[in-house]
Every structure is written in C-alpha cells, then in structure tokens.
Amino acid sequence: MALTKAQIIGIIQNHLGLPRKKSSEIFEALLKIIKKTLENGEDVLISGFGKFCVKEKRERKGRNPATGEDMMLAPRKIVTFKCSGKLRDKINA
Known about the structure:
Distance between the termini: 20 Å
CATH topology of the largest domain: HU Protein, Chain A
CATH architecture of the largest domain: Irregular
CATH superfamily of the largest domain: IHF-like DNA-binding proteins
Shape: elongated
C-alpha cells in the first residue's frame, strides 16, 4: 500500500506535536518549493534520501497504439529520481 499525502501530514502532526492545519501547511510549503525548483529546470538534492533530476527527452519516432500509425513525439522534460546510497542500503537491509 502506498503512503498517501494525508498519512504523511498525520505523521508530521504526531512527530512534531503540531495541529493538523499547521502540519498540512508545512507539507504543502515543502511540495511547493520542490515543484517550483523542478519547474525551473533545477535538480532537488535531499541528502540521505535522493535526487530529483529534470531531464530533456528529444523528439523521437513513436506509434499511435490505436491506429498503428507512425508519428513524431515532441521533445519534453521528465523528472527522474535516484535514491541515495544510504537509502538504498536501508531498503536492501
């Protein structure tokens, strides 16, 4: 089962002893900072956790799965995540 946004806010509330509204504001502020940084094409590095990277994909050939027709896919940006060595070790322990 995936950890949801509501569950994360609840965990912040319990760990810090803050009201739910304040915990939600803190979490939303963190997400806003991460989103804005990625929108600007910059990477987000969180020590001990990992790195979110913005990568550019070039134009490439593709195929419409419904019709089988060949087409060109436009260039785009994607976000990738690479976990830190510490996190990888904890996951594999």
